[in-house]
Amino acid sequence: MFTTHSFSDFDSAAQAALTYLHQRMGLSLWMITRTELDDWIVLQAEDHGYGVQKGDVFHWPDSFCSRMVRGEGPHIAPQSDLVEVYRNAPIAQQVPIGAYVGVPITYGNGALFGTLCAIDPQPQPDNLADELPLVELIAKLLSTILDFFLKAEMASRREEQQQFLTERDEVTGFYSHLGWEKLLASEEARCQKFGFPVSVIIVDLEEGQRPPAEVDRLMGQAAKIIRTICRQEDLCARIGARQFAILCIECHISQADFIRERLALGFQQGNITVDLGIAERSPQQGLHAAVDMAKSAAHEQGRFRTKVKV
To answer: Given pLDDT bands bounded at 50, 70 and 90, which one contains residue 5?
Structure first.
């Protein structure tokens, strides 16, 4: 049963719910998931046989849950192979599924966040369907808890950003490298909790022999372009003598690529030579890996180069 203590975060509430549901209803795998475009991200898992763990990512269109959300299949299917839409779903060909449970988890405005779901390799008794009111109640409670903690995280993010501004680069006014590292750590923790999409853009200014004062002037000009083009929620830092990093919060790679294209045009119009690299965080590898990939992309591509006027 649920314990009487309060939950310190969404993770602990979600895990308590999964543990309770497994104890009450059985089924080998219970999950709390988030949907992001075609990604189906596992935020919490109570697994007893499938080998699924937190951070795993599956293909949302392949899932039973995608069909359940569209109203094409029931919330509970004690014998899922008797439901045509589930029997024909790609995931049914990838893993053994004899029974299925699934209900939506939503944001405060009712939009889909993800699902509370379960599967088992063996068919279950028909009376499994009688548990639907309980599963729906728990999903609604989790949706309410989710909304509370999402709002709390947004407030915490704003406070951290102000705090980390003490680590400021004097020339550009952006976060310093130390501030950037603190931001990465905080956002990685949020991504692990809630599955936020985050992208990284790296801006490398041209190499060349210039006096330090000239480099600073050039970096100041580049910072003005970045500040003008990036969204209010994007976090910008100077992480090297000639290098900027931009953390695009709750931003898929397609959205970040639009920002990159605008940056490329802005630098071209400003006659500043840059290399731009872009990458999106993957739940398996995290934000630091995305930063490394964006740096590599900037180094390898070098496709936004225009002559600098000195």
So the answer is: low
